[in-house]
């Protein structure tokens, strides 16, 4: 008992010493966040319980309307950016205020999730005293609420006056609409800012992202000579489309798989006597028999990278592998751009240093930049070439993009406090 009491006293003394590093105003911000937490948690439950899969345009708009009312209430001017009908996406929510104090901030969230209407629905559920589950609770409705709750605490203390902040919530981060219109306004408003803070899910209380990998797609087609299987490998017949596809994929693995931050995944393969592949629906059908050499194979995959140079170098190597076909076969590969990479920069690291200092001042401990290889692509990467960026400021948890996705509810209020003080210090 005496040992536990001494440890408790030591912890209290340490926290008190850390708290002395906060100004009186910052202590008020923290207290406001804590006081508002029941309201913030209620809002989180409300938005998680609305399906907003990217293709559920009504659901995305419904979540956007909820956040719009919250931003209207704290003095932001809100608007909805509609997409052209052919893009088939709900659009984006923008909340802005303009002033002359401190840095101009661009805060990034998204309203959609990967869970479409035809998938089993998982409502918000508190599993235990530190864990909740629900569709998008972590990626990224939890992060959206972290951002909003931080701004609410600042507004309630009169600390948003004369600041320039744009909060931008895209409606199709998980399945970005095609065409320039999908992100034209997003890029334009980012260019008006000095710093971008993105509230995608955090790797934990002690990690942020100064870099993220980009993503792109590729489609491989191989062709062979249809013939009876007894003739395979003979000079007049050749190896067929399946062996040619297997050769190429295995050479990709052998020659590119050890490069840091570079990954590629063949996510769908269809081959046979008759092949149908619909890229828009990510759906394939094939008909074939074991005694017929397949004349065609389609392979769809992704390619992830840290820099544009790494992406282009990988594509060059892949094209070269594809060009050296087996006898009586041929192959072709095409690439499609997706999200660019977000390389680490000194400016990004400076923001990570700010996150670290705020965390230490709050008594939460150090914050470091996480491994870029552990993160996929995100909207922040689209604007990383224009301004300093930091990501991973949202809620923490596990299992994003999968049934049973969770959020750490004990870290949730601490992440709001950290975000609020970061925004406060950047806008002074």
From TrEMBL:
Keyword Transport appears in the UniProt entry: no
GO molecular function: hydrolase activity; metal ion binding
Signal peptide start and end residues: 1-19
Keywords: Hydrolase, Metal-binding, Signal
Residue span, Peptidase M20 dimerisation domain: 210-328
The keyword Metal-binding is assigned to this record: yes
Name by which UniProt lists this protein: Peptidase M20
Species of origin: Hymenobacter crusticola
